[in-house]
Amino acid sequence: MLSGKAARKVFVAGVGMIPFSKPGASEPYDVMGANAARAALADAKIDYADVQQAYVGYVYGDSTSGQRALYELGMTGIPIVNVNNNCSTGSTALYLARQAVESGAVDCALAVGFEQMAPGAVGVHFTDRPSPFDHFDRETDALVGQPDVPLAIRYFGGAGLAHMEKYGTGLDTFAKVRAKASRHAVNNPLALFRREVTAEEVLAAPVIMPGAMTRLMACPPTCGGAAAILVSGDFAKRHGLSTRVWIDAQAMTTDGASTFASHDMMRVVGYDMAKAAARQVYEAAGIGPEDVDVVELHDCFAQNELISYEALGLCPEGGGAKFVADADNTYGGKFVTNPSGGLLSKGHPLGATGLAQCYELVNQLRGSADKRQVEGARVALQHNLGLGGAAVVTLYRGA
C-alpha cells in the first residue's frame, strides 16, 4: 500500500485458460502464455495496450521468458516482472498484480502463468550449487528415509504417512480423495484427465512410495497456461468492465521455525504456512471458513488435499478422514473442493496452476461453470502452495 493512500477494491475483470496437456503434446511456452493472456483480455473486453503492468510466472525456463510470451501481444514498453515461487508461482504473480492495483500504482495489471514441462517427476536442475531443498531433504531423511523415492513424492508421501500415524487415517481415504477429483474433472473440458476412476482403481495402481502412495494419488506433469486481468473500480467504470468478482482478501506466507523444529512432515510440506495465510485472510475478510461456498486447493498429491482441509479450517485437525467419509468435500456436502478436478485431474503446469485456480473460481462466482457450477456460490477460497516455500491464500467474492 502506498503511504497516505487507502487500499482500493480490486476486481477480476477477465480470466483465460488454455486446455492442459501432457509434456510433448503442447505448444511452446511462449504460445501457451500468449494464448492464455489473449483469452483473459478477450474475456475482460480490453486490449493489451490498456495493461499497465504484467507479472508472468513460470518455474522451468530462462530469464525473461515472460517478455518472450507477452511480446507476441505487442511491445508496449510496460514493466514485465518474471516470477518464480515453485508451485505457488501463478498465485504469486496474482498477488503482485493485486498489490499493484490495490496500492494505486496502476489501474490495470495482467497476471500470466505458463509451464512447458518434461515427462517424469520434478527434480533439481542446478547440481553445482546449494539446493533450496537442502533443509527439507535433511528433515525428510530423518523422518521418512526412502532416499531413492523422487523428492516431491517423498515429501508429500511422508506427510501422508505422518497423518496416518497421528490420526489413524487409512490409505483408502486418500484414494477416495483422488476418485472425487476424477468425478469433478469429467465436467471440465480443459482438464488433462477426464476419465472417472474409483477408489479401488486408485488403490490398485502401481505403488510409487511403499505404504504411502500409488501413482494415481500424484498429479501428472503438465503443460498449460492461464491468466487474469485485475483492475480498479475507476478503470472498470471508464471501460465498462464487469465488477461482478473481486478479491476480498489475500495473504502470502513463507516458512516459519515450525517447518523444521516441529519434526513433523505435515509441517515440512507447508501446513503451518497454509494455516497462517488462511487465518490472515479470514480475519481480513471478517468471515470464517464456514462462510465459504467453493474451494480450489493445492492437491498436488491426494495426501496434500486432505492435509489442506485441516490447514484451511474446513474441518478440525485430525478430522480429514471423517470429512472425506461424510462427502463434505464435494457437491451436496459442506464445501465443494476442486470442482475443476484439481491438480490431480486437471493437471499441474507449475507456473499456471494458481491462475488456473483463479479461472475456475471466477467462473464459479459468475455462475458460468456449466456442469461444474456450485449452486449459489458467492464466496470462493483459493489455496496455492510451493515448497521452499510459499503459500498464497485468496478469498474472492461475487455479486
Task: Outline the structure in words.
Strand 11 and strand 12 form a beta hairpin. The strands form 2 sheets. The chain has a 10-stranded mixed sheet with strand order 3-2-4-7-1-8-12-11-9-10. The radius of gyration is 20 Å and the shape is globular. 56% of the residues are buried. Helix 3 (89-103) crosses helix 15 (353-366) and helix 4 packs across helix 5 (151-167). It is 38% helix and 18% strand. The model is unreliable at 1-5 (pLDDT under 50). The protein is of the alpha/beta class and 399 residues long.
In short:
The protein has 399 residues and is α/β, with parallel strands linked by helices. It has helices at 29-44, 65-70, 89-103, 134-143, 151-167, 171-185, 199-204, 233-239, 258-261, 265-268, 271-285, 302-311, 320-325, 342-346, 353-366; strands at residues 10-17, 53-57, 80-83, 108-115, 207-209, 213-214, 224-232, 245-253, 294-296, 336-337, 379-386, 390-398.
Question: Which key features would you list for this structure?
Answer:
single chain, two-stranded antiparallel sheet, disordered N terminus, 12 strands, 10-stranded mixed β-sheet, alpha/beta, 38% helix, globular, 15 helices, 399 residues
- Describe the largest sheet: 10 strands, mixed
Kindly report the spatial arrangement of strands forming the biggest sheet.
3-2-4-7-1-8-12-11-9-10
Distance between the termini: 25 Å
Overall number of strands: 12
Task: Quickly give the structural class.
Answer: alpha/beta
Counted by DSSP, the helix tally is 15
Outline the low-pLDDT stretches: 1-5
